Amino acid sequence: MDRVVKDIKDLTFLNWSKIRESSGTAGSFLKSYIKYQNKKIYFKLSDYNNIDNNFGHECINEIIIDRLLDILGVEHLKYYLINSKIYLDDKMINTYVCASLDFKEKGEVKNSFDTFYELKKFKNEGILEFCERYGFTDYIYNMIIVDYIILNRDRHGANIEVLYDERANKYRIAPIFDHGLSLLCKTEEQDLDNFDVMEDKKTNSFIGSRSLLDNLKLVKKMPKLNSLKVEDKEKLFYKLEGIISKKRIEKTWEMIWKRWCYYESLCNKE
Known about the structure:
Distance between the termini: 40 Å
Number of domains: 2
CATH class of the largest domain: Mainly Alpha
Strand order of the largest sheet: 1-6-7-3-2
CATH topology of the largest domain: Phosphatidylinositol 3-kinase Catalytic Subunit, Chain A, Domain 5
Number of helices: 7
Structural class: alpha+beta
Radius of gyration: 19 Å
Strand content: 15-25%
Number of strands: 12
């Protein structure tokens, strides 16, 4: 199925809230869900207020990064971008909605990573040592690299989740998810030209520091991701013209490509 749906779908039956049925934080984006064939489908909106309606690009970021991670070969939650008619604040709104399937399997329970770490860590055990003990190191290294490339400002401890299967007594870490506050988020159209795509903006990172650049130093051996090529630009932005501006597409590609090239330069030094 094409994960960008441009034909308008009627989702007026959804109820929107800042609270979700999840171990994650409530956050600032409106969310909803439905149950379908014993699974939950989660929906979320871009940044919203009742005057401007949806004015953010967070949902579009999710689909761009979904495609990027497909190319790089990094396990991640799959997202859909759906042109939707919704009912919110006593009015009908036409907007793009982001949708994803629940990654929790039957019998699994989930915890936010920060909660899991506090419950299970040894005395004076650092986060990276903890991740190594549970076999999460490769995942964390991939996450650090990806967050650098996409300039993710919001990898707090609830944007990483651990799932536990009690019957098998087995833990697994959830596919990488929630990338809305990345790329050019919060950047107005008139400010795109002056946006420095290599700037090391302060971030909310549970693992590491507030500097995504400094966090790269935590990676003892750079993971060998699938290569990103210039021709992949078309794949990343397929069907997004008209949803976001050409200027935003060009600036977003500039960011992804330059940051990817920096990552490659680090790999070549090893």
